[in-house]
Amino acid sequence: QMMKHAWDNYKRYAWGLNELKPISKQGHSSNLFGNIQGATIVDALDTLYIMEMKEEFKEATEWVGKNLDFNVNAEISVFEVNIRFVGGLLSAYYLSGEEVFRKKAVELGEKLLPAFNTPTGIPWALLNIKSGIGRNWPWASGGSSILAEFGTLHLEFVHLSHLSGNPVFAEKVMNIRKVLTRLDKPEGLYPNYLNPSSGQWGQHHVSIGGLGDSFYEYLLKAWLMSDKTDEEGKNMYYDAVQAIETHLIRKSSGGLTYIAEWKGGLLEHKMGHLTCFAGGMFALGADGAPNDKTGHHIELGAEIARTCHESYDRTSMKLGPEAFRFDGGVEAIATRQNEKYYILRPEVIETYMYMWRLTHDPKYRQWGWEAVEALEKHCRVDGGYSGIRDVYSNHESHDDVQQSFFLSETLKYLYLLFSEDDLLPFEHWVFNTEAHPLPVLHKDDENKEENQK
């Protein structure tokens, strides 16, 4: 019902545009996608399919075939277009078998290739997809590319090679690995900034939240998606987790485990909503953990899940803030006005879903249901769902944006949390960082394809 409310209103007021403004009842365009349109449609395809919203899926498929156009003169975020558009199209293809999705995914992948034309092959953050000219975010340390951005292409690009028969996509992302393996890591940690010209780190800031997050997720998932043959990805992941545990994971005086941010050796005792995905990641990676550490990784996931639940529970609206702190006598509470907002983000619910599937402890479903009730109470408006400016306030001030990831991730993870485990089972599917399921590439798939050729 929530998906239907979000989708029907998008269709009514913003069809074909990127996102919906549910209060003003009009379209919203984010500069992340340049002039590419239809972000909500492409992001929601697989959710519609999984929820068996067949009519809606059919309409969305027709729109993609007729109107999804990449021949635009516009600068886009390589990372956002990859995870939402490429990821969304790939999943829609693997779930439905509709050829239009495969064709569009490969076409878009080709348009993104010029981003890798740098001295090191570390891609630019921003690319004009008509001219092929790239650059980095002006705010990024010393002209650097961002770890979470260039580190979150691997799953999609491996699948682009698999579906197109063109090895170039996989080569581009394997080269990123090579550059990272060669570099010295301060204390075994990966800084958030890497200069694509010099191949050297920018500022030594480390975060498992924004700017870093999905890089770590993709190391683990690259190994899982390769049917556990990508040993390099596996080793990089477990080494990184070891360094994160040593240098970033701390326990508050009240007993809450959190992941701090590292700035040139000094810890900032703050955790972002984005960092809350890590609970699910630790649990998902527990099975392959070295030296009998499986139980420890599950426990770590459970502790992060609890901390993130507390960040929700300690607000008036029972929805979590963008960032929360563990200093100055507060625990799991946002202390700055510009960190008190909630933009329909999925990460906490994502962790509940993984923890539920991997432990079947009923509290994760209970926590998920609390989030549903809070979303319905505070974020649902006549025209869809809106983010909130201050989750500690007693009255809603809506931000008037229904993010595409609300349909792609938040609602999908909630649906999976309350579904049976055989819907998109983990042994066959890996979710990209936008919650788009991609199939595990089994070794015999390769041979089957070869024989078919």
The poorly predicted ranges are none
Question: What is the helix content?
Answer: 40-55%
User: What value does the average pLDDT take?
Assistant: 97
CATH class: Mainly Alpha
Oligomer: single chain
Report the radius of gyration as a whole number of Å: 21 Å
Structural class: mainly alpha
Count all strands and give the number. 18
Compute the number of structural domains.
1
Keywords: Calcium, Disulfide bond, Glycosidase, Hydrolase, Membrane, Metal-binding, Signal-anchor, Transmembrane
Function: Involved in the maturation of Asn-linked oligosaccharides. Progressively trim alpha-1,2-linked mannose residues from Man(9)GlcNAc(2) to produce Man(5)GlcNAc(2).
Disulfide bonds: 276-308
Active site: 80 (proton donor), 213, 322 (proton donor), 347
List its traits.
single chain; 453 residues; mainly alpha; Glycosyltransferase; three-stranded antiparallel beta sheet; 16 helices
What does this structure look like?
The chain is mainly alpha-helical and 453 residues long. The chain has one domain (1-446): Glycosyltransferase (Alpha/alpha barrel). The chain is 47% helix and 11% strand. It contains 16 helices and 18 strands. It has a 3-stranded antiparallel sheet with strand order 3-4-5. Strand 17 (429-431) and strand 18 form a beta hairpin. Helix 4 (78-96) packs antiparallel against helix 5, helix 11 (277-284) packs antiparallel against helix 12 and helix 13 (347-359) runs parallel beside helix 15 (404-417). It is globular. The chain starts with a helix and ends with a helix. The mean pLDDT is 97. Its EC number is 3.2.1.-. It is found in: Endomembrane system. GO terms for molecular function: calcium ion binding; mannosyl-oligosaccharide 1,2-alpha-mannosidase activity.
